[in-house]
Amino acid sequence: MSSDKQINRRNIIRMGLLTVGASTIFGIKGITQTIIPDSVMQKNKDFAGDKDAQLEPALVQEFVRFSHFNFDTVKKMVESTPELVTASWDWGGGDFETGLGAASHVGNKKIALYLLEQGARPDIFTSAMLGQLDAVKSLIDSFPYLKDCKGPHGLSLIHHAEKGGDEAKTVLEYLKIL
User: Fold this and answer.
1) Residue 48: how many CB atoms within 10 A of its CB?
2) Using CB atoms within 10 A as the burial measure, which of 9, 16, 93, 135 is most buried?
3) What CATH number labels 57-177?
4) Which residues, in sequence order, are CB contacts of 61 under 8 Å at separation 6+?
5) Average pLDDT, whole number, for the chain?
6) Residue 119, SS3?
7) pLDDT class for 26, splitting at 50, 70, 90?
C-alpha cells in the first residue's frame, strides 16, 4: 500500500471522527441517533432528571445553614424538596458545603444520620465525625493525601473527629499518629 493511500485513509477516518464529534457537540440529529442508542439516552435522561430545573440557590443556602443546627427545619425541607440532600452551596473560593457537610463539621449526628438515610453522599469527613475508623483508614490507605485534605470551610479531618466526641475517639487517635 502506498503512503498516499495510507494518508488518505487516515484523513478519511479523521474526518469521520470529526463529523461524529461535531454532530454530537452541535446536536445534529440523525448522526447522533445512530451512534447512541435510544435506550442509553433514556437511561442517561432518567439518571440526570430534568437538567433545566435547578434548585433555587437561596433555598440551597438556607438548607445548608439549617443543617448545622435545626433538625426539624431540615426534615421539613427534605420532605418538600428531597433533592436538597445532595445539593451543595458555594460559599466562594472553592468552599462548597452540603447539608451533610454542615452537620458533620459541627458534630450534629442526628442531622447527619437523617441526611444519610435520605440519600446524602457520605465522605471521609462524615466518617471521621461518626467514628467510622474502618472507612477512614480504608480511604487514607487508598489515597494517602486525604489525611491532609480540608473539608468545608477548610476544616480538617481531625476537627471532624473531635466534633464526633467519644464515638470518634479511635478515629481521632488514628489521625493524630499519621
Assistant:
1) 8
2) 135
3) 1.25.40
4) 89
5) 83
6) coil
7) very low
Compute the C-alpha angle 35/37/42, nearest 5°. Answer: 130
How far, in Å, CA of 100 to CA of 128, rounded? 13
pLDDT of residue 53: 85
Report which of 92, 98, 96 is spatially closest to residue 68, judged by C-alpha positions: 98
Average pLDDT over residues 133-154: 98
Q: What are the Cα distances from residue 81, in Å, to 11, 84, 85, 86?
A: 52, 6, 9, 11
Contact of 115 with 100, CB cutoff 8 Å: yes
Q: Where are the alpha helices (DSSP H) in 81-118?
A: 99-106, 109-117
The pLDDT-based confidence of 24 (bands split at 50, 70, 90) is very low
CB 150, CB 104: distance < 8 Å: no
Secondary structure of residue 72 in the 3-state scheme: helix
Residue 70, pLDDT above cutoff 90: yes
**Contact assessment for residue 98 and residue 134, using Cβ atoms and an 8 Å cutoff:** no
Contact between 84 and 99 (Cβ < 8 Å): yes
Q: Which residue has the cell 454530537?
A: 24
Q: Please report, to the nearest 10 degrees, the dihedral formed by the alpha carbons of residues 109, 161, 83, 42 taken in order.
A: -130
* Alpha-carbon gap, residue 158 to 172, rounded angstroms: 6
Taking residue 115's Cβ as centre, other Cβ atoms within 10 Å add up to: 28
